[in-house]
Specification:
alpha+beta, five-stranded antiparallel beta sheet, 5 helices, electron transfer activity, FMN binding
C-alpha cells in the first residue's frame, strides 16, 4: 500500500513539473484565438525558441522555455508569438505580442488582468499604438504611447515591457538566434 501511495505522489509531482513548463490552458486558448485571427490560419504549429542562459543574461526581457515561439503554417514561418507577465499596481497581468517575420508588431493583447483598476490597458484602441512598431524604436510613455488616467502603473509597465522585448528581439536577431 505504501508503494502505491508513493508511486501516486511521484506521478503527481512529475505531472506538476511537466505542466509548469507549458502555458496554462486559459492562456493557450487566448493565444490560439489571436494567432488564428491575426495570421488567418486554421492550423499552425508553435516551436519554442530556446535561449541559452548566457544569452538570456544579456537580454532586457528574459526568454523562458515557453514564452517565445515561432509560428509555422506547414513548414513556412509566418511570425512569432511572445507571452509574458508585467507588473500592475499590486499584481501582474499576462500579455501577448505577435510579430511578423520581420519582427514588426502585428498585435498586442492583454490576456488576463487581475486588478480592479487599470484594465483600460486591455482596450483594442490603446493597444493599437504598439502595432507597426519594430526593434528599431524606443517608445516613450506619455509621448509615443498615450497615458491612461487610472491605469498609469499598468500602462507604463506595458510600455516598458514592450520596449524591453524589442531590445531583446534586436539582440537575438543580431546574434542570428531568431
Amino acid at each position: 500500500m505504501k508503494i502505491k501511495v508513493l508511486f501516486f505522489l511521484v506521478c503527481i509531482s512529475l505531472a506538476t513539473v511537466f505542466m509548469s513548463f507549458e502555458l496554462p490552458k486559459n492562456l493557450l486558448k487566448k493565444v490560439d484565438k489571436e494567432i488564428k485571427t491575426v495570421y488567418t490560419l486554421e492550423n499552425y504549429t508553435l516551436e519554442n525558441v530556446l535561449i541559452s542562459d548566457e544569452i538570456n543574461a544579456t537580454l532586457a526581457t528574459k526568454i523562458e522555455e515557453n514564452n517565445l515561439f515561432k509560428i509555422f503554417k506547414d513548414s513556412t514561418l509566418v511570425g512569432y508569438a511572445f507571452v509574458d507577465k508585467a507588473p500592475s499596481k499590486t499584481d501582474e497581468f499576462d500579455y501577448l505580442v505577435l510579430f511578423d517575420t520581420e519582427f514588426i508588431i502585428t498585435k498586442s493583447k492583454v490576456l488576463t488582468y487581475h486588478e480592479d483598476y487599470g484594465s483600460e490597458i486591455g482596450s483594442k484602441r490603446w493597444l493599437k499604438q504598439f502595432i507597426g512598431k519594430n526593434k528599431d524604436v524606443e517608445l516613450q510613455y506619455g509621448k509615443d504611447i498615450i497615458a491612461i488616467s487610472g491605469a498609469t502603473i499598468s500602462a507604463r509597465s506595458m510600455t516598458v515591457a514592450i520596449n524591453n522585448l524589442l531590445k531583446s528581439i534586436t539582440i537575438l536577431n543580431q546574434q542570428q538566434i531568431i
